[in-house]
Write a structure and sequence with these properties.
Helix content of chain A: over 70%
Largest sheet of chain B: 6 strands, mixed
Structural class of chain B: alpha/beta
Largest sheet of chain A: none
Distance between the termini of chain B: 52 Å
Helix content of chain B: 25-40%
Radius of gyration of chain A: 22 Å
Number of helices of chain B: 8
Order of helices and strands of chain A: HHHHHHHH
Oligomer: heterodimer
Number of strands of chain B: 9
Number of strands of chain A: 0
């Protein structure tokens, strides 16, 4: 390939890259926080004794697991403002799309983790005379966390990657600023490469950290022979 | 006030009989063996006695003091060492300010100091069961309910568990144990309760209950192989 690389021309756009990086990080973080709070609300609703609350939570989980994120994003940015008459910025629309998308997965992840702790673990605390709260805190939660944390972090990493879709509705995140720089410099390959590397630079350390965490959580028991018969 | 059950009955939500009309008295220093086939209601009786299930009718009188319950398996907490399990129980339930020393005492008394810092997954089946007994005993219960605690163990480990159970009985604890080990029930128990399909078929001293020639279950177990 006879291509003369020109990365130096990109150096004058460092502030723009920086803005993109910050937007990706802020959008991811906000979506993760809001999505996780929503997930806790869903979980609480699913344990509610009221059928309507319970059913709605389940319906929400099913529908939002079925909706593609890109479709959700487009709906919130283009359709919801018309129907509901509210104006959301591109960043806000993206935040809600990713948060609403993330919440059912987080809820499911936590539910599955809690359910994976055998009933006998609860009962063994009960017969010793521990209160329900103590059983949850000292017996159930630590075991569930071993299973929840790795898959939860997986969902969070996925959300960070998904934020690149927000470039389409004009959120100035990493991929979007890359596009802006392409149109100003015509350095398509260089600019897109830098964008890609920025994603890798954010996510790769998280993946390494996750791997180490999984190994550490895995060393403590949970071996066959401890399941209830 | 002795530990007793009066006309205790329990039905499952689907209408099936869990246990029908159980009356029994469990005295200190005695071992009551619950025998019967799988699904006959042995575990249901133990769970009712432990308060894990509430009876539909009848009543259970608990003596003063704690009741311990030992599960068949898998009730140790996998994220804690043996010593930590005892400490957790002592700290939260007995409110023992010196839980570490009390845990070490119990473990030393049972000659289990060697496994004190092991996680359950690092223990053999027999050791796990011993650890569970230690966790139960550290709270000094007056009654211990045993749910087939030796059935998944090898014969050597079984003997070890049986020896410990004998010791507990001799020290004056009230023991109720479900088991499939008929020879052990005959040898070690004071009273046998034989249940089938949720009903108490017979109860009394082991010889009376088990030597009744009219009963197919025990006669089948006594009949030598015909080939």
């Amino acid at each position: 390939m006879n291509y003369s690389w020109n990365f130096t021309a990109l150096s004058s756009y460092v502030p723009l890259w920086w803005r993109g990086l910050l937007n990706t990080c802020s959008l991811s973080l906000a979506a993760i926080v809001v999505g996780s709070i929503l997930a806790v609300v869903i979980l609480a609703a699913r344990r509610s004794p009221y059928r309507l609350v319970n059913r709605s939570a389940r319906l929400y989980v099913d529908i939002f697991r079925a909706l593609p994120v890109f479709v959700l994003l487009s709906l919130i940015f283009f359709v919801v403002p018309i129907i509901a008459g509210i104006r959301l910025s591109a960043w806000q629309s993206a935040l809600w799309a990713f948060a609403l998308n993330l919440a059912p997965f987080v809820a499911e992840c936590i539910r599955a983790g809690l359910d994976s702790v055998p009933v006998v673990q609860f009962e063994s605390g009960k017969v010793l005379g521990l209160s329900n709260r103590q059983i949850f805190r000292y017996i159930i939660a630590p075991q569930a966390a071993q299973r929840i944390i790795p898959s939860l972090l997986g969902e969070y990493i996925t959300t960070i990657k998904l934020t690149s879709l927000a470039s389409v509705i004009g959120v100035e995140e990493i991929w979007n600023v890359g596009g802006q720089i392409v149109s100003r410099t015509s350095l398509t390959i260089e600019a897109r490469l830098v964008s890609s590397l920025l994603y890798v630079a954010i996510i790769l350390p998280l993946i390494w950290w996750l791997k180490r965490l999984e190994k550490r959580l895995g060393t403590r028991g949970l071996v066959a022979g401890l399941s209830p018969s | 006030m002795p530990f007793s059950a009066q006309s205790v009955s329990k039905r499952w939500p689907d209408g099936a009989v869990g246990i029908a009309d159980l009356s029994a008295e469990f005295l200190p220093g005695t071992l009551t063996a619950l025998v019967g086939r799988n699904g006959s209601g042995k575990t249901t009786i133990l769970r009712l006695l432990a308060g894990l299930l509430l009876p539909d009718s009848g009543s259970i009188k608990h003596p003063p003091g704690r009741i311990g319950f030992l599960f068949q398996r898998g009730s140790l907490w996998p994220h804690l060492t043996v010593r930590e399990q005892l400490m957790l129980a002592l700290r939260l339930v007995a409110k023992d300010p010196d839980a570490g020393a009390a845990a070490d005492n119990t473990l030393a008394g049972m000659k289990l100091t060697a496994i004190a810092r092991c996680y359950p997954s690092e223990l053999s089946g027999g050791q796990q069961q011993l650890a569970e007994i230690a966790r139960c005993l550290c709270l000094k219960p007056q009654v211990i309910l045993l749910d087939e605690i030796a059935s998944s163990l090898d014969p050597v480990a079984q003997e070890e568990i049986y020896r410990r159970v004998d010791g507990l009985r001799e020290s004056g604890l009230t023991i109720v144990a479900s088991t499939h080990d008929i020879p052990w029930a005959r040898r070690a128990s004071d009273v046998v309760i034989y249940v089938a399909d949720g009903k108490v078929i017979r109860q009394g001293p082991p010889n009376e209950v088990m030597d009744d020639p009219a009963d197919a279950m025990f006669s089948a177990l006594r009949t030598p192989c015909s080939r």
